[in-house]
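Researcher: I'd like a structural prediction for the single chain below. Treat it as a standalone chain; there are no partners to consider.
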Amino acid sequence: MPLRKYELNTTKLLKGRIEGKRFPIWDTVKDCNEEECLLVKECLYDRKSNENGSEGKCKMQGHFLRTMMDIVLDNLPAERCTEYSLQKIGLNLLPLYKQLVSLQMLEQTLDDITIGDGDKVKIHPVYKEIRIVTKDIDKCLRSLGIDINVTADGKKAVDSATGDSDYYDEMMGDHEEEAQSHKKKREL
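Model: Treating it as a single chain, here is the predicted structure.
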């Protein structure tokens, strides 16, 4: 029984199997509510696309979760594809991604990144929450054996916290090679 994508974003827990292994997923999303949604004017999704013409689930959140799940599954090392790792993806990681998209949707509605007035101006707390959830997602990905510091072509990605330690060496190396080349041309 393969993964049943038509059951995604529902309260059904077991949505199928991957390589014969059960894949429980908690990826429920709330119903789309145009009257209460602060992003309704920016929403790119058809909110009335259900067969019966009624409003359905929030397609922005649903699409985000499906995209993140596909990326994680595409990058999960084959030897790490166990029922336990699928459980961790479906019951730990995807709920973290749901929190992230909810926080990002909230952040999108803010008029200003600060709150307060006068001497008591602070950065809105949603930004701290986004950073916390992002760090938790990174930890969960690492525990699954997904190397978040390697690009799709296998190169080491730049760590935003420490930068690329090889950047200046490579830059200076290229510059020195170029300088040597110009020097040789002038000598001829």
